[in-house]
Design a protein that fits this description.
97 residues; alpha+beta; 18% strand
């Protein structure tokens, strides 16, 4: 398995699985998560509202891309508390792996 960090728009990244982080305590999708969630029809927003997904470290939900994003599937992965650096979030994604 290989993984890459992209600098393109995530929804346009051809991949088997697109991993997007979500911080603990998020009330609604933000940033990249909001962009991808909107294209998927809002499943992350619904999960956050129902509290079936809370962004806790190592929590995850996977949704099929369904042609709405280039990736075959999207994983929203909880990284725990908001961090001061993007590197910390990348490390949390790696640990969830």
């Amino acid at each position: 398995m290989t993984s890459d960090v992209l600098t393109t728009r995530p929804a346009e990244a051809p991949a088997d699985l697109l991993a997007v982080y979500v911080v603990k305590g998020a009330k609604k999708p933000e940033g990249v998560a909001a962009e991808v969630d909107k294209l998927l029809g809002g499943p992350l927003k619904a999960a956050l509202e129902k509290k079936s997904f809370e962004g806790k470290a190592k929590d995850f939900v996977i949704y099929p891309g369904g042609g709405r994003v280039k990736a075959a599937a999207v994983a929203f992965i909880g990284v725990g508390k908001p961090s001061a650096t993007p590197e910390d979030h990348l490390e949390a994604l790696r640990m969830a792996g």
